[in-house]
Amino acid sequence: MAKTFFIPNKESILGQQEVLTAKYILALVEGSESHSYDVVYLRQPLNRLEYMECGIVGQSQFLFKVNYADSRKGYQVVIPDFLTRADWEIVEPLLQALSSKLGQAVEGLEGFDFEAYFRQTVKHYLVDKAVRLVYCQELFSPIYLNKECLERFLAEDGLACFEELVKKVQGSDAYLASVKFYPDAQGKVHGIYHLAQGVKTILPKEPFVPVPYTEQLARKELVWEIDLVKISGDGSKAEDYQAIARLDYARFLDLLPEAFYQQLDANQLDANQLEVQPILGQDFEGLAQEK
């Protein structure tokens, strides 16, 4: 339920005003950058680009989109389902500056309340009983929210809790593990994560199918596993990495001592990400020997 704000292009006696360049729009808010296109493309009018993802490094937690809708003859600013107050403090000045430049009101801004939007978004996902995990793409990494997390965000301090969780996930220096899928001869699909020896890693408490694969794997029987990878040499070559064990994913989490990981949220919300500390030597070998 992404929210779209619209600003009609300015009319002149000769028709519609020339479309502003992407570079000009970014300059309306100091520090704004495009995360979609290199600088050379930003000199073009915005309607020559599909859309531009914007944010400020060091301030943004999520990106928002700006595009020119030729069919409506105006500018659209689209915010994602979830974003933080720090993000809104970038979006709102951009809307106001663009409105002032064009001499047109922002459609969708009047009466808009950011905190109410956040709560409405949370309620929207809780209504869908089939949704187990909600995917949010942060600036640098994704975050997955389960039902317990969403319910907690409806509390009076829910937005602050969400922002704290987002900050902690995005601020982690751990490697974010991704899953790879491999079919087997029995028609099953194996979803395999990797944990390398001595590498701080973010792993999910509950494995999941990333958004790009949901339709492809919708009716497949999934087997969730994890490879434990030993690193030799300096780790600069592919042959320095050797998978020494493959464990059932749930079994691995049961075996993992609590001292080796922490949840990626300060309030102990039931979020879906664990930050696993570097595991070395006999501790790593011991995990690899378990079946």
From TrEMBL:
Top-level taxon = Bacteria
Instruction: List the InterPro entries hit by this protein, alphabetically.
Output: DUF4299
Q: Which Pfam families match?
A: DUF4299
Quote the protein name from its UniProt record. DUF4299 family protein
Species per Swiss-Prot/TrEMBL record: Streptococcus cristatus
